[in-house]
């Protein structure tokens, strides 16, 4: 028996209604719109990121350090904005081990001037790069600044300073960030058009300038050479002569050579000792209205002598003027064992006899650079005295220790420092480089260069927050017990209220 089954034809698939088709079109349109919008947002985000990266970091990053580590001083900003030459800084740092403090600061420099840019050169990837700037011995982390044919190497050791003065009392070392001062000095040096040659006179037992002072002169664009007036005439390229603490007097021929040089608009820096008898040299200085104050200067104001050594270790007052503007505010100049300098009418008959006529005296201008307090005195019998006490005849008052003179007729400039120890390295280190800054400032004035204020380094030691002992226990109870308990109670109350709803 056979059974036959017939297949029932299937019903046609229902066609979507007009409303469904409209809904599908809306969904498709919404999807396309969302995709397009997503692509647009992605492009906008990329463009915004690129724009933000191009904006100088001073507008996108905020310096929240308590000492303003990455905030440039007015001196640096002014110098960068006035740059008219391209300067490139090459940071010699290993990839992945960059000094973030330094790279942030370099970003700030680049943001202030379109003429300043910087890049990194990994010594491992560019092993011969530093050699082309004679910096093959530069340590990792150093910076090479290049401007045209000029280049300057800022060693990494100059970017940070360490103050151990309180180590034995606190066990801590104050680390200071000195990068801005080092970089700004280097930029000024590499972009300087003029260079100078100063000659240090020899043949009279003079003291040779130490490394602290030669480095400052180099930063000021001054090359130091030696000169003996006994064997050579003053070279034509002599921007200045330095006579540092001669132990013997100059011959009349030497003085004549100096006089002729100054009459032609020369520049002379002299330091003298009260222990050296130099009548010929003194006579030349008298022609510029300056004579010695007899005796040894003694300071009675404790704020003007150093380390409690009586009153002969002078910390004279640095007078504020264009000549001394290159010394950081608050720094000291150390002048142990000094004599005073008399100027103008105070020189008495010596000036009157040495001045050829009244008009010549009128052309000379004196500017005090260093002076004692008004309570200092000059001890006349210092050679036989057993104690530092003022005698009946010892003059008292404010005495000049360093004086600058300019002759408006000839253009000559003379600076006399009546202290034989001021330009010694160990004396300079006792006041953290104040004496070297003073020399650089004076030399800039002699050469007609504008003094750039030295930028003070910035401490990297964070100020600690000291909690009084009486508050330690209450604060501990509040933080450890009360606050967690209060948070727990608030959570319980919120949970109960929500359940009741």
Please describe what this structure looks like.
The strands form six sheets. The chain has an eight-stranded mixed β-sheet, with helices on both faces. A four-stranded mixed β-sheet has the order 2-1-3-4, with helices on one face. A three-stranded antiparallel β-sheet has the order 5-6-21, with no helix packed on it. The model is unreliable at 348-357 (pLDDT under 50). Helix 7 (211-219) packs across helix 13. The chain is built from 14 helices and 21 strands. 33% of the residues are buried. With 501 residues, it is an alpha/beta fold.
Cα separation of the termini: 73 Å
Q: Unreliable runs, pLDDT <50, ≥5 residues?
A: 348-357
Characterize the overall form: elongated
Count of helical stretches? 14
| Backbone structural class | alpha/beta
Mind telling me the C-alpha Rg? 37 Å
Strand order within the widest beta sheet: 8-7-9-10-20-19-17-14
- Report the count of strand segments: 21
Give the biggest sheet: 8 strands, mixed
């Amino acid at each position: 028996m056979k059974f036959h089954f017939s297949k029932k034809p299937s019903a046609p698939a229902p066609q979507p209604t007009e409303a469904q088709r409209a809904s599908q079109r809306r969904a498709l349109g919404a999807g396309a719109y969302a995709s397009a919008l997503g692509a647009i947002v992605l492009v906008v985000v990329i463009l915004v990121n690129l724009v933000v990266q191009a904006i100088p970091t001073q507008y996108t990053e905020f310096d929240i350090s308590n000492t303003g580590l990455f905030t440039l001083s007015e001196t640096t900003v002014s110098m960068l904005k006035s740059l008219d030459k391209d300067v490139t800084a090459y940071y010699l740092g290993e990839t992945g081990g960059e000094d973030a403090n330094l790279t942030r600061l370099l970003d700030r420099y680049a943001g202030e001037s379109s003429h300043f840019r910087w890049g990194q050169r990994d010594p491992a990837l560019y092993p011969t790069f530093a050699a082309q700037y004679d910096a093959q011995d530069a340590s990792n982390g150093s910076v090479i600044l290049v401007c045209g044919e000029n280049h300057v190497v800022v060693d990494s050791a100059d970017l940070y300073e360490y103050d151990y003065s309180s180590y034995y009392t606190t066990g801590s070392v104050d680390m200071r960030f000195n990068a801005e001062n080092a970089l700004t000095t280097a930029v000024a040096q590499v972009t300087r058009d003029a260079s100078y040659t100063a000659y240090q006179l020899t043949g009279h037992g003079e003291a040779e300038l130490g490394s602290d002072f030669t480095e400052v002169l180099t930063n000021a664009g001054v090359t130091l050479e030696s000169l003996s007036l006994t064997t050579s005439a003053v070279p034509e390229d002599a921007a200045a002569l330095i006579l540092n603490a001669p132990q013997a007097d100059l011959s009349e021929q030497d003085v004549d050579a100096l006089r002729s040089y100054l009459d032609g608009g020369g520049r002379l820096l002299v330091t003298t000792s009260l222990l050296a008898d130099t009548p010929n040299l003194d006579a030349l200085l008298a022609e510029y209205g300056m004579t010695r104050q007899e005796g040894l200067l003694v300071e009675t104001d404790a704020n003007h002598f150093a380390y409690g050594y009586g009153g002969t270790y002078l910390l004279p007052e640095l007078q504020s003027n264009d000549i001394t503007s290159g010394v950081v505010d608050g720094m000291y100049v150390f002048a142990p064992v000094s004599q005073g300098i008399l100027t103008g009418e105070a020189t008495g008959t010596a000036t009157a006899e040495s001045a050829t006529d009244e008009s010549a005296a009128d052309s000379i201008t004196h500017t005090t650079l260093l002076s004692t307090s008004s309570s200092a005195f000059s001890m006349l019998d210092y050679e036989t005295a057993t104690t530092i006490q003022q005698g009946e005849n010892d003059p008292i008052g404010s005495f000049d220790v360093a004086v600058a003179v300019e002759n408006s007729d000839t253009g000559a400039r003379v600076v006399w420092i009546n202290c034989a120890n001021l330009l010694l390295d160990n004396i300079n280190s006792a006041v953290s480089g104040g004496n070297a800054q003073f020399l650089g400032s004076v030399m800039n004035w002699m050469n007609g260069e504008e003094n750039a204020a030295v930028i003070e380094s910035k401490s990297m030691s964070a100020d600690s927050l000291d909690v009084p002992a009486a508050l330690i226990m209450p604060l501990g109870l509040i933080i450890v017990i009360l606050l967690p308990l209060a948070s727990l109670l608030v959570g319980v109350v919120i949970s109960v209220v929500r359940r009741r709803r």
